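so my prof wants the structure for this chain in the tokens format not the other one, which i didnt know existed until like an hour ago. anyway here's the sequence
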Amino acid sequence: MTGLRGSVAPEAGFFARAAREVKAVLDEEGVGREPLGMDITELPMVFELQRLGVEVRDGQQTMLDAREIKSLDEIMLLSMAASMVDGAYQMIFDVLKPGIRENEIVALVNKRLYEMGSDDVEGVNAISGERCSPHPHIFADRLIRPGDQAFFDIIHSYNGYRTCYYRTFCVGRATQSQRDAYTRAREWMDEAISLVKPGVSTDDIARVWPEANEFGFADEMEAFGLQFGHGLGLALHERPIISRLNSLDHPVTLKEGMVFALETYCPADDGHSAARIEEEIVVTADGPQLLTLFPAEELIVTNRY
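here's what i got, hopefully its the right format
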């Protein structure tokens, strides 16, 4: 016990005691004068180790490098986690109708995932109607209405292995504006997926996505996370990170065994609707393998009128 993220003040001495224990183990193993890599820690802990003469270095980069390639067992766990979200989306398809609230759907998804064996439902985004554009990353108590476009992101873990998995629906009926937005988001997704194979550079993928000003944003920082790719594993965001913000200047080469999610977002020209799609992908020698299997090739209309 160090300090419960700083809630116990450093003056209480817990950080200092923990640092002494760490230093004693390092000395006992004969590496007390060597640098110490730390991936995630609290600043008071770093300061106490430095007071004892320990040179603290960034170990997070090393850990992320080590987790970049997934084993077959890890890929199986990621697939199982995604399969649970497949089931959650089937439930959403069944209940998504006028009169239900965004937060009710979030509650139902939580319940269903825990029933299927999830060990942590980190978050469920539920966004509908006029809340779709601009894109918030949080649910509300908004009532679903006929004709709404609605999208969801389900983030949970199974035995520690995570998902990030968007799907978009329309309720009862869909306008041409909504269908057009979905078609564009799907085209951007399919272009990106078609490039996924070992040896491809992440800047090649980022370039098939529109520039920020093409879909209503001032710059790539403002649009970050909308046309986006990110590694998945024991953390929600691992390597590689794919975006026009970072990949054009600092590309990464795809390797067999990487697992990442690709996300696209397209606002509709009606001023409030939007489409959001996300696919989880394994890089194989034969090309991309999808882990996210709930249908997303076309815009799904629930409870069609």
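also thought this was worth mentioning. The two ends are 58 Å apart (CA to CA).
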